[in-house]
Protein 1
Amino acid sequence: QVQLQQSGPGLVKPSQTLSLTCAISGDSVSSNSAAWNWIRQSPSRGLEWLGRTYYRSKWYNDYAVSLKSRVTINPDTSKNQFSLQLDSVTPEDTAVYYCTREGRWFDCWGQGTLVTVSS
Amino acid sequence: QAVLTQPSSLSASPGASASLTCTLRSGINVDTYSIYWYQQKPGSPPQYLLRYKSDSDRWQGSGVPSRFSGSKDASANAGILLISGLQSEDEADYYCLIWHGNTAVFGGGTKLTVL
């Protein structure tokens, strides 16, 4: 059974970088049949897909167009996890952040992390 | 104009049917896309319900009752989630999603109230 465990700070100051990690158990970040995504949710923006990383003989990334200049998703094969970095955050980035596994759909979700951007 | 538009709320009675729509922006043809549907209850992440592209290309989530089904209305350029025999436990937020190129796009969600 696949499980995703998120970690990272719940409070980030404006203009700083938001960093979250998602540890995978029951699967591999290097799987050739899965992709590893970050999604966030806020009352004002609803559910918003941020991007993904996946391995198909080499590593690929896809990012939401609206965030492409600020977001980075990286795999860490040594720890079987993947991470999210969102640069230059503003209060608009306050949201619950989820990591998810994408098989044929988003079939496994992390527990969610509420990240508040505030000074 | 948003890529996917869902009505913000819908109410229906127990035992009745509810039809939740997901309208694609003009210029994006619903026939081309698989529509994914997710259910979210308070305090939990969304859970996959089903994917619908056509009657011959659809996939129900494991354990999802058959009273949840998908379809399309080509004339309205919309995907539809039909829930029949509504139960109180179906009260939740419902989100549609498409993959538009290599990016995922969610609809704004419909809050379904069963009363």
Protein 2
Amino acid sequence: DAKTTQPPSMDCAEGRAANLPCNHSTISGNEYVYWYRQIHSQGPQYIIHGLKNNETNEMASLIITEDRKSSTLILPHATLRDTAVYYCIEVGDDKIIFGKGTRLHILP
Amino acid sequence: GAVVSQHPSWVICKSGTSVKIECRSLDFQATTMFWYRQFPKQSLMLMATSNEGSKATYEQGVEKDKFLINHASLTLSTLTVTSAHPEDSSFYICSASSGGQTDTQYFGPGTRLTVL
């Protein structure tokens, strides 16, 4: 199955920007890139999504490359509460596949 | 906004019994609801997608007669695990969308099922 590829884990110092990469080289033209995060034993939380253009909201920014084969989620000022598993997923009319995600550790 | 609840949050049952899990969208109408399963230290696996008033679409390998899904209203979907066995023990999570499959999903808090 086509799925996204993310580093299994990353560390980020508290207060710094956390940049989480994702490869989605098989994404189709009408498929979105969604980012969710999951704190242990809870349901995933929506962060942001995009199709072609970069996006920003109150939680994060999403940078999508021009060829759409990869993207980066940016948490501008990481806090300890941002410690979670971050999932980047491709969403199409007939596809929703969660990869293994990136476990982000925020270091005090 | 966009709050989804699940009930119960955890349940323990005996092997062979059936368990029903409810998923409710509290402040929006959920045209589409999704059910996922997550085993320890693994990612979410989509089990099925349901649209209000129609039959659910199950992912490959998911037994529709074992995992009964009902999406009777725009705010409620239920998942019934029939004749549960210990291997069905898992974290079951629902999500809801006010649009179709490509619209933003809002997830419930999950239900932890333990089958003895």
